[in-house]
Design brief:
By secondary structure, the chain is mainly alpha-helical. The protein has a domain of 29 residues. Helices cover 43% and strands 4% of the residues. It contains 4 helices and 2 strands. Strands 1-2 form a two-stranded antiparallel ribbon. The longest helix is centred in the N-terminal third of the chain and has 16 residues.
Length: 100
Amino acid sequence: MIAGIHASWGLFLYRQVLGIELPWLENVTRASRPKRLPVVLSAAEVRSVLAQLDGTSWLIANLLYGSGLRLMEAHRLRVKDLAIKHGEVIVRDAKGGTDA
């Protein structure tokens, strides 16, 4: 990202400010970022990982997987944040500054 900004800034400087054309620059190809696919576990792999856990680790891992909580959101949970009868979890100090 930074290299692209610097290249664009340099090109602007030469063309617009100094009035100098750089014909050799047209043949330069920019490096492209490699495409990265997210790593997604299959349902069987998730079950296998969760089966290795117990206690608090198991509970937090299940909350992370089942509800989509972020790590710090799960660590900040308190018993009063769980509305078992309604099947709800109250997330405080969530990303974005909103409580849901």
